[in-house]
Recover the amino acids of this structure.
């Protein structure tokens, strides 16, 4: 059984883009693959976080994983910092990466440009930690958004390099799985930017825990263009985004959704998209609240996941430590 692995940062609560572009598509893998799905809090602290908010967002995100249908009986679900092997392997991988290749990462360039002269070192090493996340579990398939393709490429490069230097099967070479519909849900305030957990613009992001009323309001205010009626030709990025959202919710193509709106007012599209999204999110919202009502049980599930994750992670890390020449009792 091939291994599928993916993760989301805990910098905020999860949003519609995380659901339609990631979580929703992970569910079917659970029946046919060995799955690891986790929450990356080590990655979250690459930029400053409020500790209380980080803890809270991690718990809510974990509850959301379960509410969306990730099943702890089928998949290994855990929080990254509970598995120390991630940080340990990241160091070894750091020593097999170069400043040059890390400097070329476009996400690093984007993010670091917002930090003036004081660029957090964690931002620079972020992709190495991500490579450790993946290689620790010998993952074959990694479902990610297309903005993570370059990071996957780095993981492949480091894995190939170390396989060649030490032993052929030290790491499985991972492959990105990039899906089309719903893969790129854009901000409602700026449809040229991806929907993001940390977008400061009001109404830009639909969080999975938003109330039905808030969701309706955000869609009504979604930025489109100066037109008012949908034509059958090219449409603006804002309108296209609403088509994509509906398509991902309904299992249609954006073109099919578009065809149904030709000649109709923008207002209808906004209101109906809000309704469709609310239908999808309503059960998730309710379930998340129920799961959060029993934090003890939620923490027990994560604990159990971390214990299971560590078994696999330790195996890989031991092989890596042996390869690079670290001695331990088992070396004898
Ligand atoms: N960097 C990824 C993102 O922002 C999150 C991530 C961290 C991840 N580690 C991972 C995704 C391992 C897939 C596999 O989307």
């Amino acid at each position: 059984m091939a291994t599928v692995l993916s993760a989301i940062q805990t910098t905020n609560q999860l949003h519609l883009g995380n659901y339609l572009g990631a979580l929703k598509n992970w569910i079917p893998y659970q029946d046919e693959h060995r799955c690891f799905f986790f929450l990356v809090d080590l990655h979250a602290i690459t930029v400053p976080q409020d500790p209380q908010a980080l803890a809270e967002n991690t718990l809510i995100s974990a509850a959301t994983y379960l509410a969306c249908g990730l099943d702890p009986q089928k998949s290994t679900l855990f929080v990254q910092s509970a598995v120390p092997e991630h940080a340990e392997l990241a160091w070894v991988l750091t020593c097999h990466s170069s400043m040059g290749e890390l400097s070329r990462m476009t996400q690093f360039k984007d993010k670091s440009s917002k930090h003036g002269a004081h660029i957090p070192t964690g931002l620079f090493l972020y992709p190495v930690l991500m490579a450790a996340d993946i290689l620790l579990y010998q993952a074959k398939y990694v479902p990610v958004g297309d903005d993570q393709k370059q990071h996957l490429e780095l993981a492949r490069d480091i894995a190939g390099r170390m396989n060649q230097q030490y032993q052929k099967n030290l790491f499985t070479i991972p492959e990105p799985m990039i899906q089309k519909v719903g893969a790129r849900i854009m901000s409602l305030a700026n449809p040229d930017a991806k929907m993001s957990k940390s977008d400061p613009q009001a109404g830009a992001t639909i969080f999975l825990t938003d109330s039905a009323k808030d969701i309706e309001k955000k869609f009504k205010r979604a930025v489109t263009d100066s037109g008012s009626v949908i034509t059958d030709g090219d449409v603006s990025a804002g309108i296209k985004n609403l088509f994509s959202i509906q398509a991902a919710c309904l299992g249609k193509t954006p073109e099919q959704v578009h065809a149904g709106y030709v000649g109709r007012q923008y207002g209808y599209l906004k209101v109906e998209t809000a309704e469709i999204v609310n239908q999808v999110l309503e059960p998730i919202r309710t379930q998340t609240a129920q799961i959060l009502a029993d934090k003890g049980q939620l923490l027990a599930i994560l604990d159990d996941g971390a214990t299971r994750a560590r078994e696999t992670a330790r195996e890989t890390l031991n092989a890596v430590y042996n390869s690079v020449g670290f001695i331990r009792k088992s070396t004898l």
